[in-house]
Amino acid sequence: MSSNEENINIKEEESESELTGENKDIPEQVQEQERVEEQKQEQSTPKSDTEEQKEDQKQKEETRFAGLNLEEKKEKLNYLRQRRSMLSNEFHQLLEERSEKRKLRDEKNELVKRLFQESRSEKEKRDKINEEVQVRKQMRDILKEEAEKIKNRLLELSSKIKDVGAPRDRRVGEKIRAIERKLETTPFLDKDQERETLKQLEALSGALEKLEIFRELKSEIKEMQNKLRQMQMEIKTYHTSVTTLANQSQVHQKRMVEATKEAKMAKEEADSLHAEVLTISAKIKEIKKELDAITKDMKILQKTVGIELKARRKERKIRAKQIRDEILDSRAEAILTKYKNGESLSLEEFRVLMERGLI
Fold it and tell me: What's the CA gap between 327 and 329, in Å, rounded?
């Protein structure tokens, strides 16, 4: 058996076990599992509170900034705006990064799928060739057994023909026919002639029988040799085809192993990318949670700051009116004194006295 034939089945069990093992993770199922994991991670929210709990929580949140004055609340609100802006930028960057990682992961999973399909295809081709190799090897081995039988038969025939020996006179038949014609044409033979003639015929008959046996053995030997040559040609043809097919099988074996190896590497890369996607998703979830909390705090602060600013503006307006009234009262008294002293007043001064109800 040639080295190529022996190599047909090398590492087949190892390669096939790798292939079979990897095929348990069909890329479509892997991607679906990955999506489910992400959804679970993103959707893992606490149970909803009752209305009473919500109201109690709302009151706590609204009084959380009660200890701060207006300036401190403004400062806090400004800080929250900056923090929200920074987190928002990071949030969108992470979304973009996760999208890119998902795309790369899905591309790797598609590559895994294609490589495993290629590996299965190469395995099928290899197995089909190996089946044909086994058939041809069996046919070759059968012919070898038959050829061995013919060789043994030739040895047996060679031994027999050696025992029979090669006849020295190949014209025995002609001599017998000549004696028979002589007997037919000679009317009278004396006893000595008759005895001599019979003796010659007996000797020639033995030689003829030996010659016929020799010729039969020679004929069978020739037939066996021709048959052996034909078998040897067929054996050589089968052997050549087995070697050729064995080489082809090795090509498909090598391609199958390489595709399986590449698929495993791509699968590891896809798994690594998926882990990165989950890590980023966890960060996104944390940032979103903080953004929601900041937005809630900002709403509370904006509401309280708005109320306090409105109250302050009202207070300032009242105070401004008071100051204005005080100024007008002081002026009105001066104008009233001037009026009582009989001094002339301008139209505006009359208006001031009328507004203050002094005339």
Answer: 5
Helices 27-43 & 191-340 angle (0-180, nearest 10):
20
DSSP state of 247: H
| Buried residues in 21-52 as b, exposed as e (16+ CB within 10 A) | ebeeeebeebbeebeeebeeeeeeeeeeeeee
Helix (H, G, I), strand (E, B) or coil at 23: coil
Tokens coding 53: 């709990």
pLDDT at 268 over 80: yes
Whether the Cβ atoms of residue 94 and residue 283 lie closer than 8 Å to each other: yes
Tens digit of pLDDT for each residue in 319-346?
888 888 777 777 777 887 777 887 787 7
E strand or H helix at 182, and its extent? Answer: helix 172-185
Give the model confidence (pLDDT) of 33-70 as tens digits: 556 666 665 555 555 556 666 666 666 666 777 788 88
Contacting residues for 105 by C-beta, under 8 A, at least 6 apart = 34, 270, 273, 274, 277
Beta-carbon contacts of 304 under 8 Å, excluding residues fewer than 6 positions away, are: 62, 65, 73
Q: With bands split at pLDDT 50, 70 and 90, how would you rate the model's confidence at 237?
A: very high
